[in-house]
Amino acid sequence: MDRVGVRLGMYYALIAIIALSTIINVLAIWFFCKSMLSGLLSHLIKLDSTIAEAISSVIGENSVLAQEVNPVQLMIMDLIKSNMTQKSPDLDKLRDNSGKFT
Fold first, then answer.
1. Residue 81 domain flag
2. Residues of the chain whose pLDDT is less than 70?
3. 22-55 burial by CB neighbour count: b if 16+ within 10 A, else e?
């Protein structure tokens, strides 16, 4: 009977060691991932600010005001606008004297 009790105690100890090592591994991986993500987040914030500074410097140096629209461009724009509106066809022009469509 003693041998059964010793074996059972060894199995319980082995299960406890495996459970403890699993918990330790999970916590280690969790802390590792947390530190990696915080480092990644800080680098992304730094990259975002660097890109924002680069964009603002490019826009600030080359800020050219748009040219004014000349009258020829206005005329062409009005012509395009008038052609874009749908017009109903004049049916009287499409019919001949007998009333049939040509």
1. no
2. 1-2, 61-66, 86, 89, 102
3. eeeeeeeeeeeeeeeeeeeeeeeeeeeeeeeeee
